[in-house]
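Budget justification note: compute hours in this period were largely spent on complex prediction jobs such as the one shown. Inputs:
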Amino acid sequence: MKQIPKINDHDKEWKYLSQEEWLIQIMDLYQDQVIRLAYTYVKDRKLAEDLAQEVFVKCFIHKEGFRNESSVKTWVYAITVNLCKDYLRSGWKKYIHVIDRFGKSKQSSNLTPELTIVQKSEHEALADEVLKLPLKYREVILLYYFKELSVQEISEVLYKKEPTIRTLLQRGREMLKRKLEKR
Amino acid sequence: MEDPLKQLPEILNHGRLKSITFKDDHRQNVLQKARDLHKPPAPKSWFYHWFHQSLSLALGVACIIIFVQFIQDIPKHSSDDIKKAEEQTLKVPYANQAILTKVKHDMRHQHDIQSTIAVQTGDTLTVYIVYPDDLPSNEQLTLTKTYLREVSHLTLNEPYGAQSYLGELWNYVNVKVYTTTSNVQSLAARLNIPLNYDWLGTIDSKNGKLTWERISEDDQSNEKGILN
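Corresponding output:
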């Protein structure tokens, strides 16, 4: 099998790759990051897998539209975020979500609240609370702390102004703090 | 104190997201989809073409049939009919129309009249009265006179001068009354047949007197008179 040279995000070598090589390179660099980011939005493994595949196909289709104004990472994340939000907005998702919640509420009734709390470590509780935040705060917190993007990069991914991102970050942190204190 | 959120990548990547990875079969799916994008579309089977063309043809024919039926259902109006209808609706001032409606109402309730239709052109009022088949001609004559008298009285009672805003009213009206029978159905047919009676009257709106004259092709003994 042909070996593809590894290229980092800022290399200019991207344009010398064939289309398929380019796609493989993108997947090598971002596959786990994309699928995990998708998971933080949809909170479902299967869906995250499907969405991640769709993200890479979309990247492949819109490859020519990438204008080097941002980094490849920001561009791939922006596609991921948009696809996940499209999915969350879709009527089909709402329908599935209701059924899913109904099923989960039945399952969770077997565990007592005490047992649930004991089973979760402090770290788990933090992760749990982050994933329970409202979407607008959750995505900013995750992109900043989990994906370690700068405020400027987050503003490019979410198409929002930097002061807005800072405000959302601050409010998200406060909300999280309050929730963790209540535990 | 260190911000616990800074540990978030470690917490998530080694915690609940640890098992969420992009597997090799996912990569293969993506590559396959990417390759498929460049593939020319597979040639369609003859059945597909046959079915598609038959369906298109059937839909086309159905649309044409529906369109033809729709066209056939639209009632056809001759230009004469339209013109007459326009005259009826537009040229009869509504005060005059009110008088005629009142007369028509009275006549239909008190006498055996099937229908009356009035058309005004300028200051000439033309009235068609439809009598039942079995009504003797002398009865028809009497009823026609009654009708004319009714119109005359109502015309006299209407204070024209004071109500000029009501539209173009009768100052001097010629009234023609044609009497016919109910076997003549449509207005167009009524206009074309030779008529049994022809009454020509003139109403003077100042004194309300109707001077009338019977002109009949069958009966040469012309009648004349004054109604008031």
